[in-house]
Specification:
single chain, mainly alpha, two-stranded parallel sheet, 7 helices, 66% helix, globular
Length: 126
Amino acid sequence: MLTALAHALGAVLGVPHAAAVAVSIPRNLRYNAAPCVDLYAALAEACRLPGHSPGAKAERFVEIVVELLRGVGLPDRVPLPAGAPFDLLDRLVRSATESTQVGLTLTPRKVDAASLRDLFAECVAR
């Protein structure tokens, strides 16, 4: 799903790849947190992050990744372009589903068009 979000932001809005990935990573990690709690907790342990439970460790792992991205100056959202069409979110969803079908089917938590639309709404600064 990360690829789908980043590719669509680049294709539709012209966002540079690194910025699109940086904006997409937190949303992808949070969206997939429930089915990936053990994996995220293991990653937290490998990074020596504290936590009293797998859920707490997983949450801390996501927080640290987001802090790292912001700490090096990567954006949290992409700016809404002037004169953006009213159906921008739908265009992003369409681009994501048409260009990265495999990535969307392999995501740990299944994603549908409505979920993608919500994720894109979080990615774009209004």
